[in-house]
Amino acid sequence: MSTPAVGSTAPSPGSVLRGLRGFWTRPVPLARIAVFRTIAYLFVPVDVFLTTAWVRAHAEVPTVWYQPLEIARVLHLPTPTSTVVHVVQWALVLTALAAATGRAPRLLGTAVFVLYLEWMVIAMSYGKVDHDRIAYLVALAVLPTIGRVHWRDRRRSEAAGWAMAAVMVTVMLTYFLAAWAKMRFGGWDWATGSTITRAVIRRGTGLSEWTLDVPGLLVAVQWAMLVLEFAAPLMLLVRSDRARVALVVFLLGFHLMVFGGLRIIFLPHCVAILSILPWERAPEVLAAARRRLQPGRAAALATAPPG
After folding, report:
1. pLDDT at residue 7 greater than cutoff 50
2. Is residue 22 part of a domain?
3. Least trusted range by pLDDT, from 114-123, 194-203, 228-237, 291-300
């Protein structure tokens, strides 16, 4: 049996396992939780009244059309009558706004998660289940595990690190499992077929319709999508703040490009992506921006004509 050469840099199984454990427990500043928590909770009314405004229409749908998801059957959740839908809607919005203030983070945060889960059951129990909600739902589930924090809280916490790691892993799995589903149901024909071509024909804009005239371009795009989605686990290797910012810019840029070309946007997933950013640096960045603006403002006031 051969032995590793002296000075070999090949990682041992033990070091790999320690690295995986470190990923889940790497401390992060509590300020990151504080800022992202505010963003996540303030998005709830946007989602309820704009992104998924159609869910309210289920209040007028005959209850015989309700085909509850498995989780609704297991938990014996109520049938979404008109009263149930409207009560859940307003309770969710008001609770989220209260949670965004940072008060009673465990109690109000848990209530937001439970109510949003019920809102999603109401939304997805009529024959259509979207995959852009899971990372945001996980974010709402883990945020209440962190106690009271504030935007300038520089303390580092392993619990906060675990919460942010859970959201990041779910963001990654959203892409990876999307590729897996393409292969499971469409096989390699998905990559060589006309899926995006059909989408451009149905939903295209001036930013995407020109691609129909370029032979092979959209097939190449489909292959690129598969490669990137299957490579999604690599995002877990991101460590530095600059790399985190670059990753978020890349992911959000992709979703903005899709929206510009096909009018499809996964807003809850985009909110979950924001959890990757080093939000603890936001107060410093804002303070630096104000300092840069103040000399210019003072100079403008000094040179302004009297009166």
Report:
1. no
2. no
3. 291-300
pTM tops 0.70, yes or no: yes
SS3 annotation, the chain: CCCCCCCCCCCCHHHHHHHHHHHHHCCEEHHHHHHHHHHHHHHHHHHHHHHCHHHHHHHHCCHHHCCCCHHHHHHCCCCCCHHHHHHHHHHHHHHHHHHCCCCCHHHHHHHHHHHHHHHHHHHHCCCCCCCCCHHHHHHHHHHHHCCCCCCCCCCEEHHHHHHHHHHHHHHHHHHHHHHHHHHHHHCCHHHHCCHHHHHHHHHCCCCCHHHHHCCCHHHHHHHHHHHHHHCHHHHHHCCCHHHHHHHHHHHHHHHHHHHHHHCCCCHHHHHHHHHHCCHHHHHHHHHHHHHHHHHHHHHHHHHCCCC
What are the CA-CA distances from residue 144 to residues 34, 44, 71, 177 (Å)?
11, 15, 21, 26
Supply the pLDDT for residue 287: 77
Q: Is residue 5 a part of any domain in this protein?
A: no
pLDDT tens column, 38-59: 999 999 999 999 988 899 888 8
Question: What are phi and psi for residue 215, nearest 5 degrees?
Answer: -60, 130
How far is it, in rounded angstroms, from Cα 56 to Cα 119?
10
Domain that holds residue 146: 28-279
Q: How many domains are contained in the chain?
A: 1
Residue 2 lies in a domain: no
In a domain, 299, yes or no: no
